[in-house]
DNA sequence: GATGAATGAGCATTCATTCAT
DNA sequence: CATGAATGAATGCTCATTCAT
């Protein structure tokens, strides 16, 4: 049982999440992460190859968790409307509960550094495929109307992302709950769900 | 007439646009911008206070142009449907024609550095208000349905942003024209435009 | 009987010999030595004060063995010619059989770090004195001609050292046996041994 | 005329020679070289790729000078005896006048770091070939006797190297002039030069 | 004695910015 | 105005050494 190993690994990831979110990846010093975690700088390198590896691991791990969390919820749904509702709710709530991760997602999703983008693309693509599967199924059963899967997914993800982005960077920590219904109404309309 | 001054100012901004887009803001060296512009490193500091100032000026200037370009087009429209169509078309086309700017917009819109965000917020907010004005007018005339102006604007902008993001970071330079109609259809649906 | 203690001490020394020879003293990590010895990093510090101590101990121990091995062979000789032949043969053969030690001797003999040089000087000076004694005796019995003991010793040692150096750093592991006779002939000539 | 460029290049090389000689390559900090040269740390990197590049350049440049200096002197000689005398005198005197270089030659000639060795081998090999050419010519004209060119060269170089090594690391700065004649006598004897 | 995870001092290198020319 | 050589503060990462188990 290498629990302590796993424990410190997660501790560093947590600290890095906070630190990256506060300063941004580039402006955040490794020593800042170490200080937040209450460990020595060198210790970080027992768990991660380098600074970039922290970011990538962070994203894969946490974003992966998010996608794996949503998946079974969607399987439980009976209708496409329910599935879309689940995605919207889960997305907004998860990010609301993981503000720092939400910030990093906002930040690093847009990094043009090709190496970082490549590493990040995995878990994200998985999420995109999940959304597209939901849409594809809805189209087939004629529950929704959408000419182009990819564009449909972009609308859904983009809308949620924009909501999160503004929430994340506004000072007020007001809950996102209030906007859920409005977002849902717009999304339902976009896909012509008969309500 | 400060023409030569203005000319070189724009030259540096153009070079910076290319360089930031290719390497990302942090990884892009000032000397790279100078080389692209065909001038000496030091010359840049005759026109800009520092590296950050280049980024901010770049964004204000170019994003401002974009908003100022859309504004009259919208004023020419008769219906909300036309106005939304104009926004979608103009947004996609402008970014398609200014790929480097599109990349930077993707990047820097998400920078958590508070100083950068503040500087960027100006021209962006102007665009947001433009969109919200269109929506507000549509709601008033009952051309569209939308419970919350801000969320409506987030959906529209977020969707366009997601489309651009994927286009920008995909290797293929395929035109965005093909998706315009699909985006429009979804947007019309979202706002319950009677067609 | 501190046999187990002694055993592991030698094991570390052997591993260090290999490791230093392969990577050089400065570039060789202590953990590399530990891995070669099949022990934990920390264990090394139960036997040696620090990294430098390993090098010094290594040199004293192994070089001391070499000198102690030659001494009785020389005592058995009847003539100065035999004694010089013994030195040349023993030197070349010992180094050939202890390639890693030969490399370290080459390396560390030249270290300018004053502390290391001091520590190394002991066993080496002993060897130098051995050679000088042989020369002194030969001069006295008029078997050889040499104006200056120290210079004579430098010629002999320097020649052997140069042969070893080139052998050690050439990829081919060709035996040194072939050069023994040539070296001897040159040395005999240098000291005007009547043959 | 990029004289200032060349001037500072040599200044750094001079400072590095002193610094490497005093502390050894590995223990010498780049900032130490900069301080000795009276320039900023960063300036060094305008002239050299990295620390290793300084060492290699230093060796190539200075050792190259040495070999180029000896070559014409040897061409002026009439006999092999004169040529060997020239080599011995030039070697001892050059190193005496360039103590720091002599120390570095002693140090780095033995570095096992394969990359450094490779870079160093150039100018050294040139010197070796020069010596071997002299020997080959002497053998052909029957001025000297030597079964094996390479071993002959090793004896000559090794002897000189050993003399320098001891002089360099002894505290006293006594002149090497006193040993020249003794070295020459031994060398002449080794190669059976009829005197 | 043995371990190996943790430490943290130490250092090469980068690059935004300056300023003498 | 323009230059570009020079600056030096800043930081990611290494690795000899320690010490709780």
List its salient traits:
77% helix; Arc Repressor Mutant, subunit A; DNA-binding; elongated; homotetramer; mainly alpha; 0% strand
Overview of the structural elements:
Chain A has two domains: 1-48, Homeodomain-like (Arc Repressor Mutant, subunit A, Orthogonal Bundle); 55-190, Tetracycline Repressor, domain 2. The longest helix of chain A is centred in the middle third of the chain and has 27 residues, at 114-140. In chain A, helix 7 crosses helix 8 (149-169). Chain A has helices spanning 3-23, 30-37, 41-47, 51-75, 80-97, 99-108, 114-140, 149-169, 177-190. Chain A has 195 residues and is mostly helical. The structure holds a DNA duplex (21 and 21 nucleotides).
- Give the oligomer, counting copies of the same chain as homo and different chains as hetero: homotetramer
The N- and C-terminal alpha carbons of chain A lie at a distance of 52 Å
How many β-strand stretches of chain A?
0
CATH structural class of the largest domain in chain A: Mainly Alpha
